[in-house]
Task: structure prediction
Amino acid sequence: TPEHPFGHGKELFFWGLIVAVLIFGLGGGVSVFEGVLHILDPAPIRDPKWNYVVLAAAFVFEGTSFTIALRIFLRDKGDRSFWNALHTSKDPMTYTVLAEDSAALAGLVVAAAGIFISHAYDMPEADGAASVIIGILLAGVAVLLIREARGLLIGEGIQPETAAAIRTLLTAHPLVRDVGPLLSMYIGPDEVLLTLDIAFEPDAPASDVADTVKSLEQQIRTRYEKITRIYIEAVTAKPAR
Result:
């Protein structure tokens, strides 16, 4: 649109931040608050049957969501290692669901353990302690998600090794004398903006320079599919003295 010439790709980063804040504020905060109340004023659990039924149903739902997200992630990660692919992923729809569902599944296990200890050993404080642990777990995940969303919202660019590989590709061309700083930014989960200056040989014909720019742009797009918007400013290098 005229108001958003590069599209609305960053909106996913914004909503990823909102989800992280809600997990921290409503999920982690309320869980810790309720846990402290149960520790200060413990109430014994008489019949935990329905507690286990609810936890089991929640585990099925969260597990299904986690399995779907994990399957999509493994399909898209390619030859990269799991942790490397997770770290370099810029799609909140994938890493947010994976992180939240992982924390939820771990939290359900902690909740079940808290209920079991509380009922089996007549220690009602254990239920409150489990709630506090769940809150801390959710808060930790939220902090990680907020950190990732912050970097993307303020203009995170491509990885240094990717930039170095692109520079090597460009400088290998015989007409290229020098390459300026590579300025990049994620404008969507699968869309990167890249701008740079290239100094060409001073005696290179303008037509050859134009063809070279097009060729280099195509090579970058072919090798790095996410770099979709490339703006190369061609400049003439100063003659060597």
Q: What stands out?
A: The first helix runs from residue 11 to 40. Helices lie at 11-40, 49-76, 82-88, 92-120, 125-153, 160-171, 206-223. The radius of gyration is 26 Å. Residues 191 and 226 are 5 Å apart (CA to CA).
